Amino acid sequence: MRNVHLILVLATSLLPFATVHAAPADLPETGQTTCTDASGVTIACAGTGQDGDLKAGVAWPSPRFVVGTGVGTTDQCVTDNLTGLMWTQNANLPAGTGAATTGVRTWQQALDYANTLSLCGFTDWRLPNVNELESLVNSEAANQATFLIAQGFTGVQADLYWSSSSYAGSATSAWIIRYDGIVFADNMADSHYVWPVRAGQ
């Protein structure tokens, strides 16, 4: 009996040092369906091991993006059925309707704009983090703005968009996404586009 008690004491005393593993994250497919050889020529994907062959990740639902019904409060919003996020339909909403105005803001102005937005019956809008913003990228599309406009969005700019994620390498920089999917950090005092998001249903 003493040995059993000793084993229990040892087992419970080691619990704080036990390795804890997080549940795996379900990452979505990239959208890529074509494959190329070393010269850039399109080839059949089967057996290449390329992304277009494996299509690893969670498959995109069909339809992936659902534009508001045009009735009620959601007619200016788009829901992404893959991530559950709701985006403003207009990806350049701060520009308003005036031809002389632009939608670009500094990072703090972008945060403030998104945090105070009231649209589609919701007031919990915010600036997306870098992963959320990058989730809109389709690796199969040569031009992300053209792809997203074809999905029902409007005002998508072939330019730079702020994320809410600050850059650990500098106290004055934050992550941005370029229209072609490239992610990098930029000075918070610079002005870029703003695309608010909120958690979906």
What would you note in describing this structure?
The protein is an alpha+beta fold and 201 residues long. The protein is built from 5 helices and 9 strands, in the order H-E-E-H-E-E-E-H-H-H-E-E-E-E. It has helices at residues 2-14, 51-54, 107-115, 130-134, 144-150; strands at residues 35-36, 42-43, 65-67, 77-80, 85-88, 160-166, 173-178, 183-187, 197-199. The radius of gyration is 22 Å and the shape is globular.
Write the layout of secondary structure elements.
Layout: H1 2-14, E1 35-36, E2 42-43, H2 51-54, E3 65-67, E4 77-80, E5 85-88, H3 107-115, H4 130-134, H5 144-150, E6 160-166, E7 173-178, E8 183-187, E9 197-199
Antiparallel strand pairs: 1-2, 3-4, 4-5, 5-9, 6-7, 7-8
